[in-house]
């Protein structure tokens, strides 16, 4: 029984993650998730208490910045932008799902937690100076702006630009926050 319960829970999580990243929070219903997991909708509620708790349980964004942040600080801006531009479809899907559902009760809180814990705080630890908290937050906002331009707005000029050129130009701006003159 415990194994069967675990299998249905795993199937629900897997289906929810896929559907939330493909369709977003608003475009995914508990019935859709249940159908994709081949379970009764009541089982989704029993395991996760509802759509929002299931969304929060499945939408995790770990961009793995540690490897990039460990490199030389004087070239971190362009390296960081290049790394983020190469994000996989899952990362992009989770980012967009969180962003689009950010006005839903606890989802906005989760998005802020992901932003702070996954980007701002690791970067802040690498920075020096009395204003490092502010510069880390500004860097997070700057990077978020690029991802917004690419993934939300779909800015055609940005999308058509070679990733190396974007990393060089945008990375230079980011570098000014990381190592100010």
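-> sequence recovered:
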């Amino acid at each position: 029984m415990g194994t069967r319960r675990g299998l249905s829970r795993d199937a629900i999580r897997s289906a929810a993650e896929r559907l939330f990243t493909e369709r977003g929070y608003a475009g995914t219903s508990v019935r859709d998730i249940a159908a994709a997991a081949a379970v009764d909708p009541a089982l989704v509620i029993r395991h996760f208490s509802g759509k929002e708790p299931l969304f929060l349980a499945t939408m995790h964004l770990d961009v793995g910045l540690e490897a990039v942040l460990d490199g030389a600080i004087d070239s971190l801006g362009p390296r960081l932008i290049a790394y983020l531009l190469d994000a996989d479809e899952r990362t992009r899907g989770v980012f967009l799902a969180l962003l689009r559902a950010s006005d839903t009760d606890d989802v906005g809180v989760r998005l802020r937690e992901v932003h702070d814990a996954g980007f701002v705080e690791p970067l802040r630890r690498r920075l020096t100076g009395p204003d490092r908290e502010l510069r880390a937050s500004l860097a997070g906002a700057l990077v978020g702006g690029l991802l917004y331009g690419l993934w939300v707005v779909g800015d055609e000029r940005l999308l058509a630009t070679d990733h190396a050129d974007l990393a060089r130009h945008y990375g230079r701006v980011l570098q000014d926050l990381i190592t100010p003159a």
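Residues 66-178 form a domain with the Tetracycline Repressor; domain 2 fold (CATH 1.10.357.10).
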